[in-house]
Amino acid sequence: MAQIAPFAGIFYSADMPLEQVIAPPYDVLSPVQQQALYDQHPQNIVRLMLNKETSEDTPDNNRYTRSAEFLREGLASGAFRLDDAPALYEYIQVFEHPLDPTERVTRRALFVALKLEPYENGVVLPHEETHPKAKVDRLNLMRATNANPEPIYGLYEDPTLTVARSLEGARQGQQPFRKAVYSGVFAPDAEQHLLYRHTDSCLLGELEAFFAERRIWIADGHHRYETGLNYQKERREQESNPEGLKPYDFLLIGLSAFEDPGLVVLPTHRLVKNVPAQRIEELPLLLERYFHLELLSLDAGRLWIKSQSEGVKRFLVVLPGKSYALTLRDGSLMDTAMAGSHCEAWKHLDVTILQAFVLDRTLDISWQTLAHTPDVAYTRDEDEAVDKVQSGEWQLSCILQNPTVTEVRDVASAGDKMPQKSTFFYPKLWSGLVLRSLS
Description:
The chain has 17 helices and 21 strands. The two termini are 25 Å apart. α4 packs parallel to α5 (132-145). The chain has two domains: 4-264 and 427-437, no CATH class; 268-401, Conserved hypothetical protein from pyrococcus furiosus pfu- 392566-001, domain 2, CATH 3.30.1760. The protein is α+β, with helices and mostly antiparallel strands. The chain has helices at residues 18-21, 31-40, 46-49, 63-77, 132-145, 162-170, 201-211, 222-238, 277-281, 283-287, 298-306, 333-337, 344-347, 350-360, 367-370, 382-390, 405-413, and strands at residues 4-5, 10-12, 80-82, 88-97, 100-115, 124-125, 147-148, 152-156, 178-184, 187-198, 216-220, 250-257, 264-266, 269-272, 291-296, 314-319, 322-328, 376-379, 396-399, 424-426, 436-437. The chain is globular. Helices cover 33% and strands 26% of the residues. A hairpin with a 2-residue loop joins β9 (178-184) and β10 (187-198).
């Protein structure tokens, strides 16, 4: 099954202001946020994982070559340092629950080098579809830097939390190897980032044996995992002696247990525009073919969607000044609508039902149209999903319930993939705490 290995990490030196140089991963940063990170500190990790494009870029001087130079210069100047020995790195995030500001949550992940496995081997399982464009971008970065600039995120089964207990015992009395307490635009709640370094050979052996009997589900970073596979194939074709395991046969990943009490999964809401006015007028009547409807105020609707009942499929459609509470009339509708094309778990996902009966059959936005239309946008921020409709920027929004890690596991275990924008594991694993060289 899964093969993990310790590795000699690359990390910022102890005298660097860690709060100013780490950042959320590349794929959640807007251009404005990218610039803010550039301005925050000259050694911010954004210059490695998401260097800026310029109008003067050439094949020999571009965002990827500048990323590589940033890493080389950082190592040469001492801003970055390479660990003295291979290790596994425990990453603890302490944060405010996004749906309950009174609750502080602790999530644990373990940074390892994971042996790349094709999906068909059934060892590493994807749960979402991907787009080719992002994979080309990440492949160019990997080629230039010869490194894993930031980790992907994976999940494993551990009902008794064996790994968590082992790591907790190993770090008793230790101070974090690196620590950052961040308060700012990306986390206004004083989010803590703690990194512990584990080198004990007995512990490392126990963890390697544990994962050798486990599969890994990709929670976040499908593009980067598939890029790792492409890079591995490319390097092996270039090698005169490709025998044996090489550094590029492994990928940097943070691993959490499905059972970790700090695992938070958020939905991704939909925003819709350019729907004909007549269809908007007929919307309640059209939706009643599939859902029980209740007209609610905006505030009442937002409270309603949070009072979810397990197994009940419900959605909130927000229009200017009002909302409609939608509850699916009959769960068997999906069996008829999607017969034979996907596994049972996929057919009953909230995003699948929303797409089939709200976007496709009611608003005439098909699965095929969804891939390239500018008339549908996505946000994880419920306030934004409501405000953009009230401002007139978008005609309506669809607010979803929280997905569950069980749904992720069931769909991937069946060899299927969830539609894009199905899950958002909160918070993201931040970039810059540890990197991995492929040299």
